[in-house]
Design goal:
alpha/beta, 19 helices, globular, 6-stranded mixed sheet, 15% strand
Length: 536
């Protein structure tokens, strides 16, 4: 099944090949996990990482540059932000999931594992996606309760670089199914399904890859029990970006959550069907050090987005450390000789999907259309759920920024010059003013415990005009009581702290949020003096 390599491969810094055996297959393996419904960066801030269209562009560019065949796999946690969809968000989440599936198809994703975030819309919804032929979803142990028949495809055989690759799927049996689902479906322990699945593919495949949403401790047991599994790509709540490592005969690989990075392995697979376990620990330690340096540089860039860093001492130090680490890795890879040239091996790296990277036009169009569909659907919801006087009770603790400005004119004038005052206009420019996922952080809402009721009442898209911006009460808290008796009742947050800001400025929306810096830009003039009742 293996084909002879006929052409030389260009050397690159992180993909310097060791001397290859005569009979081998060489290919690229792109992998991702735990995207969790993230389509494209929301655009809340500059230099946001991630995005389906950047991922697609990188896969295409690297494959063309290296002139190698490739596989793209996702180990699960792809479709939804939560593990159970609230009823008021279900329709929009389904539209987003459909867009993600179309994008993955456009990227030629060969197979996808199933994790809790893929079952948030229910087993039946994912089954419908499967029946439409949209992506190949793999799970050998999610079965019908009565017949114990697998609902999804247990495994798939595919070919790359002249070798046959078997891809199997396992879903963590501890994922909770709804009470209604439990009458129709069940998750069997891996011990009851994996032996048979392996027996069916072992003689057909040159290489076996397992997509698993089990935690590491379980995957470790699997690797120890079944050394014929060559690679485990994992997903799940503990997802973290970690350089591939070995357990017995099996390589483990995983990227971090929310699609910020794309994993890449360059594999030379031989007829032996086993990895070379020659001591690569020093190389991997150096690679981990390089990854940490790159992460520090990325954070420094984010924290100084409006300032050039070429004269920054910390930046220059990191640049020097990066160059040193790269040189060491390159030297190690050139000198390292495998003990047995008949064994398989790999090199690996992660590709941070930076905002500066190009976007694939086809996938970009899919994602843009998806966001427009969500916005259009939500606009229809708005028309069907107008604000009524009976719903005013939900907002009874708010007064709105205009009422605040009656006493705090200086602060209100300053606020009107900030992005907070123009928050809805920013959404309108992106045609996302009806998208609830975006709107929730671009309007003024009561304390967090009331937000759930606003969603239930479908008020988010029908708020009165005075609340359709990030107004005074977004930071200082509801002020109806203060407005009624300003000499006796203080505002809840006279000087808002970092946690107030982080209600919205979360890593997925603002990964370079630094409270001390942002607070200087946005704080009200003489805010402490003006907002304390005893100082009025």
């Amino acid at each position: 099944m293996l084909q002879i390599l006929k052409s030389a491969v260009p050397l690159t810094l992180l993909f310097v090949l060791l001397a290859a055996p005569v009979m081998a297959a060489e290919f690229l393996l792109f992998y991702s996990n735990d995207v969790r419904g993230e389509t494209e960066p929301c655009g809340c801030s500059a230099k946001q990482r991630g995005g389906m269209s950047r991922k697609a562009a990188q896969i295409k560019q690297i494959a063309e540059k290296e002139k190698l065949p490739y596989l793209f796999l996702d180990s699960g946690g792809l479709l939804f932000k939560q593990t159970r969809l609230p009823s008021d968000e279900e329709a929009q989440a389904r539209i987003a999931a459909q867009g993600i599936i179309e994008a993955m198809q456009a990227m030629d994703c060969r197979a996808t594992g199933i994790e809790a975030h893929d079952l948030a819309g229910g087993v039946e919804l994912l089954r419908q996606f499967q029946e439409k032929g949209q992506l190949k979803w793999l799970s050998m142990n999610l079965v019908e309760s009565k017949r114990k028949k697998a609902i999804f495809t247990p495994s798939a055989l595919t070919e790359t670089a002249g070798i046959s690759v078997a891809i199997l799927g396992l879903t963590d049996e501890k994922i909770p199914l709804s009470a209604q689902e439990k009458t129709s479906y069940t998750l069997l322990p891996w011990e009851k399904t994996l032996p048979n699945a392996l027996a069916q593919v072992k003689k057909k495949a040159d290489m076996i890859i397992l997509l698993s949403s089990y935690p590491y401790v379980v995957n470790k047991k699997i690797a120890e029990a079944y050394p014929e599994i060559n690679l485990i790509l994992s997903s799940g709540p503990a997802a973290a970006t970690a350089y591939p490592f070995m357990v017995k005969e099996t390589v483990f690989a995983q990227t971090g959550p929310r699609g910020k990075n794309l994993g890449l392995m360059r594999i030379v697979w031989t007829e032996a069907g086993q990895w070379d376990q020659n001591d690569f620990s020093a190389i991997r330690m150096q690679q981990s050090q390089l990854d940490r340096i790159i992460l520090q540089m990325h954070r420094l860039e984010q924290q100084n987005e409006n300032r050039k860093l070429n004269k920054d001492e910390d930046w220059q130090k990191l640049l020097a450390e990066k160059k040193t680490a790269e040189t060491k890795i390159n030297t190690m890879l050139r000198k390292q000789q495998p003990q047995d040239k008949t064994l398989s091996r790999f090199t690996a790296r992660f590709i941070p999907l930076e905002s500066s990277l190009p976007e694939d036009p086809t996938v970009q169009e899919i994602m843009s259309t998806t966001m427009q569909r969500i916005n259009t659907f939500s606009k229809g919801e708005k028309a069907n759920n107008t604000f009524s006087t009976g719903q005013e009770n939900t907002l009874r603790n708010l007064v709105g920024w205009k009422r605040c400005s009656a006493c705090h004119a200086v602060q209100a004038a300053f606020w009107q010059q900030t992005g907070h005052a123009r928050s809805m206009a920013a959404l309108e420019a992106k045609q996302q003013q009806f998208n609830p996922d975006c709107v929730i952080c671009h309007v003024t809402l009561p304390e967090p415990e009331a937000v759930a009721q606003i969603k239930t009442d479908k008020l988010l898209l029908n708020l009165p005009e005075q609340f359709r911006s990030v107004g005074c009460e977004s930071c200082h808290g509801p002020t109806a009581a203060h407005d009624a008796d300003p000499t006796q009742v203080a505002v809840p947050h006279a000087k808002p702290g970092e946690q107030v800001c982080k209600t919205c400025h979360q890593p997925e929306h603002d990964s370079h949020f630094v409270f001390a810096e942002k607070e200087k830009r946005i704080h009200c003039l003489d805010s402490v003096v003006e907002l304390q009742p005893e100082k009025r």
